Amino acid sequence: MTKSELIQRLAERNPHLYQRDVERIVTTIFEEISAALARGDRVELRGFGAFSVKRRDARQGRNPRTGEQVAVADKAVPFFKTGKQLREKLNVGDGN
Amino acid sequence: MADETITRAQLSEAVYQEVGLSRNESADLLETVLDEIATALAQGESVKISSFGSFSVRSKGQRVGRNPKTGEVVPILPRRVLVFRPSQLLKKRINDGVTKSGSNE
Fold this sequence. Notes:
The complex is a heterodimer of chains A (96) and B (105).
Chain A: H1 3-13, H2 19-38, E1 42-45, E2 49-56, E3 59-62, E4 69-72, E5 75-82, H3 84-90
Antiparallel strand pairs in A: 1-2, 2-5, 3-4
Helix pairs in contact in A: 1-2
Chain B: E1 5-6, H1 8-18, H2 23-42, E2 47-49, E3 53-60, E4 63-66, E5 73-76, E6 79-86, H3 88-100
Antiparallel strand pairs in B: 2-3, 3-6, 4-5
Helix pairs in contact in B: 1-2
């Protein structure tokens, strides 16, 4: 499912809304999450999951092609931890 | 770095500010968005949100684990786990944001 398919499905579930409003809603939600992470904030959505930022120290890396040593600067990476309810939802039914 | 925790309350407030819906309806819509994503994932579908990232479901096979307290061997059943891969744009934004706010280790 892509973002536009998500918008499509939401529009079907909410026939009283204009599609462009549904689009703005979806955009706003992901924009808010991104902005929060860029500020270094955590976003916790109980039952769904939590987004956070993890820091990675600077390290000596290697160019895998040439074997050459390169310095990798410290960086921040976004991280998602699946919420309990969603984790359970992924594993119900088919017994997998 | 601000180190605050954003929850549904702030996200639905943002939706409320952005679109001319009531606070209640904004909160419902946020819930519907999360629900659609969860449902797609539960059906094994992956979810790609451009400029944000993608969620996909990975199946893990059975393996043996150990109860760390007792050392007892327990089988870990096959399961499905969710993986989030942030987009390049989100990664860049987070690094720029964190650097700009002058935080260093």
